[in-house]
Write a structure and sequence with these properties.
This protein is α/β, with parallel strands linked by helices. The protein is built from 12 helices and 9 strands. Helix 10 (about 320-415) runs antiparallel to helix 11. It starts with a helix and ends in a 5-residue tail after the last helix. Strand 4, helix 5 and strand 5 (about 175-180) form a beta-alpha-beta unit. Bound molecules: guanosine-5'-triphosphate and magnesium ion.
């Protein structure tokens, strides 16, 4: 269709026409209901509150059943999110209910809210990935996005802990938060009243956005605005049944009396159930999709480089964005490749220089050793020469002594009478001795 045709088409005035008889499209709402009922619903609740605050008991009380529970230890090394999904049926409506427990939250100082935020984001991411697929199957996709976070406040009667404020602040743009004061039977009526006011004023002064029951639908506007004023709900949970009058009711029994869970003058449990399940369940699901998921999706797509309009306020083309991103990516890849190549060359050069230096050092060492060796050799040679000379001198003296000896022997044999005397004289002569040993002289 040409652009001018499109403009004319969109500018065309709408006219009201009356029908001549019954056509049937008034059954559209019924068709919708029937389709939704066949498809079933999913609802996901995140319970955040310190260990043993009464999360599981409240869930059991809310849905009037017994969900699987296992007590959390106070010594968990980190906060862990534990989702459990149940198929529930009421009349002909099927509900896939997921209850997610933030196990270990608030136990020790290092237990922070990050794993909770990450879990919520992961569910959004999974949905986004499904949406971005070419072959999407959102119709039978198990939507695990968190529709509501029940934030369990410890009934100290004092004020909110900083961990509560920080956590709620981090979560408020990602999930619908309904704050509830747990174990409200452990705090007196007047203290509870003051505590509720304190909690709300702290939430407001810290800019924490909690979920407001919607007042735009006339049918529920009144009840919702009344209930908004009752927040945070002070609840009591119990799986125990106690006989009150001739009726069995869920209650907590104490030596001084019975706290009835469903008695509105005892606690706000009924208000919470009405608001969460009977009146606003669909709004919570819708808010999750249209507000929180939308925000996540927008940020994610913008991060990826997608925009609705370009700087000249012209609609942004997906193809152009893709091309720009592709070019950016390739450019970045090339830059990285060049960087790595340069790094490699530098490394090789460095190693080469190091090796050369080592070679030079080795060579120097070799030359030095060679010089020492030659010096030693020269000294040894000299020593040898000296010794040889000494040996020659010694031999010469030895020969002289031997000659003298033989001469004296000859003389003795010729003059036998003078033999003994001469012999004595010869050996007592210092000159003879010195000739014989050679060393005496030196
Ligand atoms: P973890 O899952 O282990 O963190 O505990 P939890 O928060 O699920 O608490 P759970 O429901 O297991 O309750 C812990 C204890 O608190 C049990 O002994 C409950 O009976 C008790 N309890 C639960 N709700 C209430 C309540 O409203 N008032 C009082 N006084 N005690 C409660
Ligand atoms: Mg529990």
């Amino acid at each position: 269709m040409a652009a001018t045709d499109l403009e004319r088409f969109s500018n065309e005035e709408k006219r009201n026409l009356s029908l001549g008889g019954h056509v049937g499209f008034d059954s559209l709402p019924d068709q919708l209901v029937s389709k939704s009922v066949t498809q079933g619903f999913s609802f996901n609740i995140l319970c955040v509150g310190e260990t043993g605050i009464g999360k599981s008991t409240l869930m059991n009380t809310l849905f009037n059943t017994t969900f699987e529970t296992e007590e959390a230890s106070h010594y968990e090394s980190a906060v862990r999110l534990r989702p459990r999904t149940y198929d529930l049926q009421e009349s002909n409506v099927h509900l896939k209910l997921t209850i997610v427990d933030a196990v270990g939250f608030g136990d020790q100082i290092n237990k922070d809210e990050r794993p909770i935020v990450e879990y919520i984001d992961t569910q959004f991411e999974n949905y986004l990935q499904e949406e971005l697929k070419i072959r999407r199957s959102l119709f039978n996709y198990h939507d695990t996005r968190i529709h509501v976070c029940l934030y369990f406040i410890t009934p100290t009667g004092h004020s909110l802990k900083s961990l509560d404020l920080v956590t709620m602040k981090k979560l408020d743009s990602k999930v619908n938060i309904i704050p509830i004061i747990a174990k409200a039977d452990t705090i007196s009526k007047s203290e509870l009243h003051k505590f509720k006011i304190k909690v709300m004023s702290e939430l407001v002064s810290n800019g924490v956005q909690i979920y407001q029951f919607p007042t735009d639908d006339e049918a529920v506007a009144e009840i919702n605005s009344v209930m908004n004023a009752h927040l945070p709900f002070a609840v009591v949970g119990s799986t125990e049944e106690v006989k009150v009058g001739n009726k069995l009711v869920r209650a907590r029994q104490y030596p001084w009396g019975v706290v009835q869970v469903e008695n509105e003058s005892h606690c706000d449990f009924v208000k919470l159930r009405e608001m969460l399940i009977r009146v606003n369940m669909e709004d919570l699901r819708e808010q999750t999709h249209t507000r929180h998921y939308e925000l996540y999706r927008r940020c994610k797509l913008e991060e990826m480089g997608f925009k609705d309009t370009d700087p000249d306020s012209q609609p942004f083309s997906l193809q152009e964005t893709y091309e720009t991103k592709r070019k950016e990516f390739l450019g970045e890849l090339q830059r990285k490749e060049e960087e790595m190549r340069q790094m490699f060359v530098n490394k090789v050069k460095e190693t080469e220089a190091e090796l050369k230096e080592k070679e030079r050092e080795l060579h120097e060492k070799f030359e030095h050793l060679k010089r020492i060796h030659q010096e030693e050799k020269r000294k040894v040679e000299e020593k040898r020469r000296e010794l040889e000379e000494e040996m020659n001198a010694f031999n010469r003296r030895k020969v002289a002594v031997e000659t003298l000896q033989s001469q004296s022997l000859q003389a003795t044999s010729q003059q036998p009478l003078k033999k003994d005397k001469d012999k004595k004289n010869f050996f007592s002569l210092p000159s003879a001795c010195s000739i014989a040993t050679g060393r005496y002289v030196n």
